[in-house]
Amino acid sequence: MSARWVYYFGDGEADGNQNLKDLLGGKGANLAELTLMGVPVPPGFTISTDACRHYMEQGDVPPELPSEVQRNIARLEESTGKGFGASEGQPLLLSVRSGAKLSMPGMMDTVLNLGLNDRTAQALARESDDERFVWDSYRRFVQMYGDVVLGVDHHAFEAALSELRDREGVKQDTELSADGLKGLVRTFLDLVEDATGSPFPSDPEEQLWGAINAVFDSWNGDRAMAYRRHHRIPDDLGTAVNVQTMVYGNMGADSGSGVAFTRDPSTGEKVFYGEFLLNAQGEDVVAGTRDPLPITEMERLLPGPYAELLEVQDRIERHYREMQDVEFTVERGRLYMLQTRAGKRTAAAAVRIAVEMVDEGLISPETAVTRVDPEQVEQLLHPGLDPAVEPDQLAVGLPASPGAAAGRVVFDPDDAVRLAEEGEPVVLVRQETSPDDFSGMAVSQGILTSRGGMTSHAAVVARGMGKPCVAGAREIDIHGRDGYFEAQGRRIKEGEWITLDGASGRVLLGRVPTVEPELSEQFRRLMEWADGFRRLRVRTNADTPQDAAKAREFGAEGIGLCRTEHMFFGAERILAIREMILASDAESRRTALGKLLPMQQSDFEGIFRAMDGYPVTIRLLDPPLHEFLPHGDEEMEEMAQAMGRPLLQVKVAVERHREANPMLGHRGVRLGTTVPEITEMQARAILQAAVKVAEEGVSVLPEIMIPLVAVPEEFQRQDQLIRAVAELVFNERGRRVDYLVGTMIELPRAALVADRIAETAEFFSFGTNDLTQTAFGISRDDSGSFLPLYIEQGLLPEDPFRVLDQEGVGQLVEMGTQRGRGARQDLKVGICGEHGGDPSSVTFCHHLGLDYVSCSPFRVPVARLAAAIAALYEADTEAQEEQRLQTVG
Amino acid sequence: MSARWVYYFGDGEADGNQNLKDLLGGKGANLAELTLMGVPVPPGFTISTDACRHYMEQGDVPPELPSEVQRNIARLEESTGKGFGASEGQPLLLSVRSGAKLSMPGMMDTVLNLGLNDRTAQALARESDDERFVWDSYRRFVQMYGDVVLGVDHHAFEAALSELRDREGVKQDTELSADGLKGLVRTFLDLVEDATGSPFPSDPEEQLWGAINAVFDSWNGDRAMAYRRHHRIPDDLGTAVNVQTMVYGNMGADSGSGVAFTRDPSTGEKVFYGEFLLNAQGEDVVAGTRDPLPITEMERLLPGPYAELLEVQDRIERHYREMQDVEFTVERGRLYMLQTRAGKRTAAAAVRIAVEMVDEGLISPETAVTRVDPEQVEQLLHPGLDPAVEPDQLAVGLPASPGAAAGRVVFDPDDAVRLAEEGEPVVLVRQETSPDDFSGMAVSQGILTSRGGMTSHAAVVARGMGKPCVAGAREIDIHGRDGYFEAQGRRIKEGEWITLDGASGRVLLGRVPTVEPELSEQFRRLMEWADGFRRLRVRTNADTPQDAAKAREFGAEGIGLCRTEHMFFGAERILAIREMILASDAESRRTALGKLLPMQQSDFEGIFRAMDGYPVTIRLLDPPLHEFLPHGDEEMEEMAQAMGRPLLQVKVAVERHREANPMLGHRGVRLGTTVPEITEMQARAILQAAVKVAEEGVSVLPEIMIPLVAVPEEFQRQDQLIRAVAELVFNERGRRVDYLVGTMIELPRAALVADRIAETAEFFSFGTNDLTQTAFGISRDDSGSFLPLYIEQGLLPEDPFRVLDQEGVGQLVEMGTQRGRGARQDLKVGICGEHGGDPSSVTFCHHLGLDYVSCSPFRVPVARLAAAIAALYEADTEAQEEQRLQTVG
Predict the structure, then answer these.
(1) Which helix (H) or strand (E) holds B407?
(2) Considering all CA atoms of chain A, what is the largest pairwise distance in Å, rounded to the nearest integer?
(3) Dist CA B274 CA B282 (whole Å)
(4) Chain B interface mutation, best of A776, A783, A813, highest count of B Cβ atoms under 10 Å
(5) Is residue A790 less than 8 Å (CB to CB) from chain B?
(6) What is the tens place of the pLDDT at every residue in A445-488?
(7) Is the minimum CB–CB distance between B659 and chain A shorter than 8 Å?
(8) What is the complex's ipTM, to 2 decimals?
(9) What is the nearest CA distance from A810 to chain B, expressed in angstroms?
């Protein structure tokens, strides 16, 4: 039997079904399925993606295709009693649409009313008894066909249309006269002939082949190709072509069109929800030129079709076991379904629908979990802007940390602290932030920066704190010393109210009310299911007992990254660390660090108590020491005075610690190597805290983590030092606690020599932020000047600081994991970069067999859900492929 | 037959020979060989490294060892007619020395006179008739044995010795009386008993086993272990123990000791060369307490032994076919050879000896080539300080670029240019240099910086120019604005003369005369042989026609890296590039760049002409644009004025281009991607220049190189652009030239996705400087504060910016090469980092199968020689292993 290129559907019979999406595209497969279900669908046929592939490879359609199309047209004629190109009786008019497996911008969209020419138009006019309808349909056809098939500049058509409106003195196309439209058809036909040098094709068959080829050609159009490259969609998927009998909702008071959802897409409530227009075509509902009515109005206006629609939509939903978005038309009292597909929905609706469908027995808990997009879940946890208020937008920056907050503008972190103490909500506005600003950030409602990207200091810290942040809002121009910033020519003074929407990146003038989130019972149940399915553990990145407690509420199973540097920035503490920096020998350094010891110890005690029963990974001091030194002349003088030292000494120290590339400088384990007293003090603080809380009955599992290791020997040295301190502490206190010593793998070299590092290290935590920076050779702080362009132009599919670059950085994670486990079978491996909370990165970590991911508290539910979905899809590699492609769409 | 643990040598017979270095160590194998040659050697035996391994594994010597040692002692007694521990007749005294395959600091050195106790001392006194000799030998034995075997603090012995000198009122140990020494023996014996709690072992056999075990134990001493770890020497090599009959050069006027070389080690001339002391032991010659005589004096003083020595040394050299360093003793008119080994020599001597030995028919040209250390060769090319002058040293920095030069101190590059134009030799003194300083550096005799490391900007540029540079001289304190620098409390003013010795890092006050190098005919012949053996091509890094010509003289076969950024710094040029930076649209950028086009083109023409017939790899603009902008307020005002722009605009531009980590910022291909006009201009300049010189008959092979590629797509984009420009140029000029487009692999991600990059790229050049920076996460500029400590403490075996880190970065080079060649079989692969001129890195590149290395002009001969040696050793993997270990020693 020869290959089949064309699949018919109509009158309850179909050659295809919903499982043939590869062959028929999503639209074609669903039309076949609906037909098979007995749902009224205008009959038609689908030319398969095989034919498209043949066309791409051979440069022409398969030789059998014309006759197959002809046979199917005949079948349509038979089914409808109409004739394709018939100048007698009813002419058969067709729609032609592309339909790939995945919807894809840049593909040819739709040609309606195909089959019209001067003769069929006359026949239609006779049959429909509605001249205006006929000429309007005809001019629409010529316009669409001219534009998308023949490539005539669409402005030409619009100009002629506008001229006609002027001439007839009307504002809407719907008010144009039949005669006017008839003349317009003529004008359009001439326009096409002028532009193409050939007359508009009047032969319906020629029209049809033109449209089919145009669909195939559009598969390799620039925009579609760029989209596929960007989303890594294979070029050989191809598109199908759907050819379908036209039906008309604009044939009088017994006709209409609408779009509807089987459940409320914003709340998820199980109610039929949608919009409807009497005497209108589908495009009129979408275009918004007339105000559509609520779908319930249809009950009154078209009671019969409405009853049928209610029954049909319910049947479709039960059939697909998924909330559906349907399009329909009523032609002279008769209902036709034109499309069905899974409906888009809010996060809240997704959760409610999934859980209720389980209760209704439609789907399993496994399926319910896969029905919620992890990326959306975070929306549920943060306050949002009150949608009732019309905002006054000043600028749009990067949506760096979600949530909404309002506060008074402050430019200086100290002012932020002062005002916050007075009970004023503040928003800290800075060019960019540094660890110095931590205390000011901690008291602010939100943070706004004019520089920096999604992973700038401000963004990372704000996400960690669960505070809204808009970063890199380049439209605003900050004059902090003069007490104002400018945006859109407006000057916003210190103390004025602004509101940030961290989810969209919008900066709004004034105090826009926000609404607090409420976690639903359904959400709780869904997450409980998810936890039952996942294999990956989910920890959190948290530096304070408050963050730790918050993350625990969100389901964190330990801390994967507790940064200790923020603990050094209190007024008293920074003085001690500065003393250490100025000290000239180990003993004076120890004395200075000794002052920090009790404070650090008490920090750790709080965190251990909050994480009772769970492991806590503490990273030793990481940033270069110059971050603890002042920058300006004034601040240097202050420091000299506060410490009773000559100004020159301070200046020399600042100068000595200045670095050309601090990211690649004297930081991480390099500090512990050159100044082992820091490691000594921190190890002691951690272990003394552990012993103390263990005495209180807390179950404490400290994991001490050495950052920025590149060389196995530097890790070994630190490991020895920590173990020596541990023995001292345990002997002094007369009590031991279990602990691990491990390292971050955040430099390419560490991944390459992971086997040797794992000989000593008991755990690895991939620091994918720095690993991405060094593998790409891109500083996050400086990437704003080129990275956005890279993503825009499709040179990179995603921001690699947000979504783990599996092609490159992922190789290092895989290599590090395999080599590390090769040397130490029970090596605990996790990830603690920003990527720990990104769903596709979590999926990647699951497949690599990592033990856990760690992310900021508000991303914990995202990671839990993503980990569950990864585990559910794992069994079925095809489903996995689906998932990959779905995350694309 | 059971395993043998002990190897005898003496009286012309030996169980071992020179090929058993693994088993007998270097010293033991050579003693056996000399004995077999019939050279007079005091008889003895060697306990093998197998015994040492047994000792390390089992914690005890092999059970058969004691009886084997006993048998060999008996053989020694028979041979010498002396008795071990004999209180009648002549007592047999022994030396015990460690002897591993490689000489290794930290191993037990020597115990002499073993076998003495109160009774054997009496017997020796009777036999030698020299009481003083006996008690001096005895106290030396107790002192050495107490120190190295029993671990008694050597200060205790020295204190007692010093007390005796005071009591006898003498200054030298040689003046002490026999009675005094006899008393000292008693004091030493008591000292040992007090310190160890046991009497000093008087049984010679117990003494011997104590010494043997001490040698074995010293193999695992801290210093020896650290040394092995540092040099990656396997721990299981083990050491041998050499036990040998004592002979004495201090037995009167017919006795003596000496050390000698078979050829002059500083010139290589074929003359017997050495030093000699009458009536003295070997250690006296070395200690320098008496002035040794030239070896020729021995002819007069000990004519018989001298004649024998002359004959023996000649025989030894012919036997080993290598210049030897020998030690000998004459005891009562009888010559004994105590050691022979290959002699250390200067670079000039190495070349002369190797070539003359070929002429003498001793060795092949292949062997001659392997006899010269490539690292030494560079010494021959640079001027050196006149050794006759006593220098006044101000400071020592890093020996960043070899050669010696004197000049007047200048702090400002513009002053350097001005003074140089007036004919004054100048030395530019800066904290660190930047591309801004290029013109000033170019006219200076040498460069001195107080910051930065071996691969700082100053160091790299100076090496490229073949100018001496001392970098990171932290002892000097620069006050450039006040016109002086300080060192050692002395103030050196602008205009004063200083001299730099780039080979040692010394900074000297005043104008020390230098001597120009003269390349010998032997050098020329040696390099010609080397070129015949090597497979790797050697190119040079050169940015000017002058450098290119110089490198060609040194044997460069093309340019592997021509940086274009230096070409942008002339007064006129920088104005144009600044105009481009300030321009707001592509057209104005093109206009500004258009001014640079003719200048760039003429630069390239000069370089192409200088490299007629060889390929020239030109790297497109690499540094971030802010390097072309001024920094200080004053300079910004100047720029604004010169360009007729408002100061604010300049300030905004400077601010906008400021970067937190410029090394990881907006540079390399990221410039060409965001500002394609730069690529357009540079491609045009290169190809127009190529067409122009091709018309003149020059054979031109341009290779256009895109820097800092991380993503295949960014390379593809640039490649398309360059090829489009090329077609335009070829059409305009009516002539085509062949050219390649390739990329640097200098980011870890590029190595990881090298297969995809090679789909488009025609060549790879590993930029191992940046690859090392990103793989390690270490900024060269900032590494000074920790990297030296890492190397000092053995955390890293070498500075990875000088010697390629094969363990880590090497994996990326290998991966990039294999994956690249996997995708494109004929991919041309080279390396153009600093490592291109480092011998061990060149060897690594040879083994990876790279096509070429590229290095600074003065390193070209180094690389040629290293490449030849790598090829010669390749065939023989054992020889290869030797080579690896030799580079360690």
Answers:
(1) strand B404-410
(2) 106
(3) 13
(4) A776
(5) yes
(6) 999 999 877 767 788 778 777 789 999 898 899 998 889 999 98
(7) yes
(8) 0.81
(9) 10
**How distant is the Cα of B862 from the closest Cα of chain A, in angstroms?**
28
SS3 for B327?
Answer: strand
Q: Tell me which residue of A865, A811, A877, A815 sits closest to A838, measured CA to CA.
A: A865
According to DSSP, the residues that pair with B257 across neighbouring strands are B277, B329
- For the question of residue B832 being annotated catalytic, the response is yes
C-beta of residue A559 within 8 angstroms of C-beta of residue A546: no
- Residue B484's pLDDT band (cuts 50, 70, 90): very high
Rounded to an integer, what distance in angstroms lies between the CA atom of residue A453 and that of residue A451?
Answer: 7
Q: Give the Cα separation of B605 and B561 in Å (integer).
A: 16
Q: What is the pLDDT of residue B888?
A: 39
What is the distance of C-alpha B234 from the center of its chain? 21
A670–B contact, CB cutoff 8 A: yes
Cβ(B423)–Cβ(B754) below 8 Å: no
Q: How far is CA A150 from CA A99, A196, A200, in A?
A: 20, 8, 9
Query: Is there a contact between A115 and A267 (Cβ–Cβ < 8 Å)?
Result: no
Determine contact: A226 vs chain B, CB below 8 A. no
Chain A residues 695-724 with a CB less than 8 Å from chain B? 708, 710-711, 713-714, 717
Read off φ and ψ for residue A857, nearest 5 degrees: -50, -45
Q: Is the pLDDT of residue B545 over 90?
A: yes
> For the residues B482-493, what does the mean pLDDT come to?
92
Whether A809 sits inside 8 A of B749 (CB atoms) is: yes
Question: How many angstroms separate the CA atoms of B116 and B123, rounded?
Answer: 10
Q: Which among B711, B714, B777 has the least Cβ separation from residue A710? A: B777
Query: What was the pLDDT predicted at B877?
Result: 52
Is A749 within 8 Å of chain B by CB? Answer: yes
Question: Model pTM?
Answer: 0.82
Question: Helix (H, G, I), strand (E, B), or coil: what is residue A657?
Answer: helix
Phi-psi region of B621 (alpha: psi -120 to 50; beta: other; left: phi over 0): beta
- Per the structure block, which two tokens stand in for B802? 């000088």
Among candidates B666, B782, B808 on the partner chain, residue whose Cβ is nearest the Cβ of A753:
B808
- Is the Cβ pair A785, B747 closer than 8 Å? no
**By C-alpha distance, which of A741, A699, A442, A379 is closest to A558?**
A699
Q: Is the pLDDT of residue A151 over 70?
A: yes
DSSP A797-819: SS-TTTS--TTTHHHHHHHHHHH
In single-letter form, the type of residue at position B212 comes to I
Residue B881 has pLDDT above 80, yes or no: no
CA distance A871 to chain B (A): 28
The enclosing H or E element of A723 equals helix A712-733
C-alpha B101/C-alpha B28 separation (Å) is: 9
Alpha helices in A100-235 (DSSP H): 118-128, 131-144, 154-168, 178-196, 204-219, 222-231
CB contact under 8 A, B660 and A711: no
* Predicted pLDDT of residue B466: 73
Q: Would the pLDDT of A79 be above 90? A: yes
DSSP state of B875: T
Cα-flanking dihedrals φ and ψ of residue B373, to 5°?
Answer: -75, 115
pLDDT at residue B884 is higher than 50: no
Mean pLDDT of B7-15: 95
* Contact between chains at B661 and A666 (C-beta distance less than 8 A): no
Nearest partner of A292 among A266, A271, A320, A273, judged by Cα: A273
- Residue by residue, DSSP assigns A288-334 as TSSPPEETTHHHHHSHHHHHHHHHHHHHHHHHHTS-EEEEEEEETTE
Question: What pLDDT sits at residue A569?
Answer: 80
**B537, containing H or E segment:** strand B537-541
